[in-house]
């Protein structure tokens, strides 16, 4: 922040003070850009969003981004540290995406920048301009109490943005919550498979372990992995069988039973379909590969 700002806690400047960075970059602090005039684009992460007059952009720490800022555009950049904004938020900047939005709702402005635009209507943007102008004035003089006033103005700007785009933020928050819930459900399924691999497992068993209906789990697995429950279970069993074949002395029949195959012939057929070799041949090739080299004969006396 020291390279592009006068203060490490909070800084604000308009486009006349310094030339813009026109190559993708990232930084350790939060950033808000306010477009006052011009038509630009904001590339953030893998998304390209419009950045026209009356638009705000919100950038998380360490998120790669760049705004095009064509000649003649006018804008204001606000940089601030996490400690300045939320001293109570004791979370590493790289873990901010794991923070529940119910705890810090305004964090959604930064998290969802890649998925929506924050373009204010003229009447609401007038209030944005008022807050920005007050910040510019207060930051320039930096008197006793200035940091408290600046923090208050920043919080007002974030609160105004949340209120203006409440519908979009709530929709995206709900989708994010559902996605997190689905991820946790898939983790429970994977853990259940791993812990009960030797048993006879069904889709209903896994669904009960993940607190889902069998039909919902089947659709979720297909959507997220492109595979059915049976295909995933077989994949996990073959992977575990390879571990046992490579690192244990168990016979092929014992390995088959250990990973949930009651019949050795069926296990051999499924293993060959997956790996391209029978379990015995695969084990021999792996052990030959890992075997220490034979000692070389010494020089003749």
From TrEMBL:
Keywords: Activator, DNA-binding, Transcription, Transcription regulation. PROSITE patterns: HTH_ARAC_FAMILY_1 (PS00041), HTH_ARAC_FAMILY_2 (PS01124). SMART domains: HTH_ARAC. It comes from the Bacteria. Residues 187-285 form the HTH araC/xylS-type domain. This is AraC family transcriptional regulator. The lineage of its organism: Bacteria, Pseudomonadati, Pseudomonadota, Betaproteobacteria, Burkholderiales.
